[in-house]
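Quarterly update from the structural biology core.
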Amino acid sequence: MREGVAPAAPASSSGARRGARSLLTVASLAVALAAADTYVVVLALTDMMAGVGVGIEALQKGTPIISGFLLGYIAVLPLIGRVSDLVDRRRILLWCLVVFVVGSAVTAVAVDLPVMVTGRTLQGLGGGGLVPATLALVADLWPRGERGLPLGVVGAVQELGAVIGPLLGAVVLAVAGWREIFWLNVLLGVMAFVGILTVRVDEGQTGRGAAPGEESAASTPRPGSRAEAGRGGARLRTGAAYLSGALAAALTVLTLWAPEGLTTSIALGGPFVPFDLGSAAAPASRVLTPIGVGAGVAWLLLATITARRWLPLLVRADVVGASFIAVALGAVVLTFSTANPETEVLGPWGLWLLPIAALAAVAFVVRQQTARHPLISAGVVRARVWPSLIVSFLVGAAIVAIVVDVPLLSRLTQGTDETDAALVLVRFLVAVPVGAVLGGALLRRVGPGLVAGPGLALAAVGIFAMAQWDRASLDHLLATTLALVAAGVGIGLAIAPVNDAALADAHEDGHGTVSSLVVVARMTGMVVGLALLTSLGLRRFQLEVGRLADPTDTNALLGAAVVQVQTVLLGAGIAAAVAAVLALSLGSRPVGHGIPSSHDLPAEPRGRSRG
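Predicted structure, tokenized:
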């Protein structure tokens, strides 16, 4: 049971609680903002690198700006999902927005690459947590059988990020600089925070316990009692927390802003002078200064004072197990996301990171078996949750192959730059959210398996058509549009059914965990799927080159590169086809119409978990 909330009775069959749509609208806009940030750096990356002193000739140094966001987005999702099952989901949304806004502000003021990467990682942490919390919120606010359209809306706005992000970056860059992109994020994030904080949802239909901090008059302690003394100590700790928080925030702002009036002052500039690390080649850092260290000490003090508030919650959520899975996921992300998909499978540190990922995964499995309260409780992942995770993984692999290799084919055959090549994808990227909303609407009448299965079959047909494209295919607008739209709508159709089936069979107190695992499965499928498909494509390219009479023939090499792209897309089509078959197991009858609820399924022991 989540803290401060009484056990909720199932929502009435008449529909969602009053105010649910308003809350979902604001939360979905926040999800769209965070999703757009995944792609917003596409056009601004070179400017951002120049802003922290990294030249275009060292493009590989800018990779952490992108991989840092992905790392933050994926690695902590299981922990955030679990925490959202223990506390009020609105509180999780608010804290995720706080982290996202802080990360945006840090990125906006960064003049050092490590600071910028830290800001992007914080953006990923906050933005990634919004998705499972919002999906679980749908399960809280809508009854079984009526979650399809809300889930489709959440999926649609998440996919719109791929379209909105580059457009938002382009519009801002047309009138201002790259820093304004992230200040705009701060403004929009604050507006979303206020919206989520102020929207009221009718609690009368579910009942509500005392909110955190609410006490009856009868519970007021007598003056001089031990309880009164404890309350006085709590007030003292709260005051100290506010004071240390204000100090930490002020020192951090001064550290990152470094106003010229202070840094150039003989009397006041000392705290802003970087430490001498004994390396003349090392660039001066605003963080490695006396005031930067002071900010770090203030944050450590704040964490120490407030530990009684957050540490028991993290322990209850199994932060140890979450750390193991975060290391495993993080190592996988860094291994594959730092590789150039056109020429290599593993990033530069892959041979070191993959063994670390394997060890962390083993440690996580052991932890699941031995912890009293493991990260993924027993009975949470069961029934249709399993095929939902597998389908999500395969869909992620199919999506990333299209997103990467269709623009690559455009660059190879049409000689376009990266921006123009990306425009070829717009037809696919717009079709996905359209399919997501349509799939959610269909769930009122059709079972999730009969929406996701045919949808993914349609996607497979579209992708197989792409796998036949040659050098001249992209010149045929109608044929390419049909294939791209079919793939996009088909993939979109599967988004809501997968989430709906998983949430229906998950235990009530595991909706956040299951939602996070579905997102993790899809994101992992994107990262790992791209690597595996690229490996097959590169192998095919090498075989084609080996058959050439003249390996230096540019025209022949171009043909071999096209074959490489075709191979990757063929693999993506197979992944979509397999997902279509598995999706049929999600059920032929609408959720809530004759399919047992999570309360009706046999309960598993609530002690140790089988994962």
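The first helix runs from residue 20 to 39.
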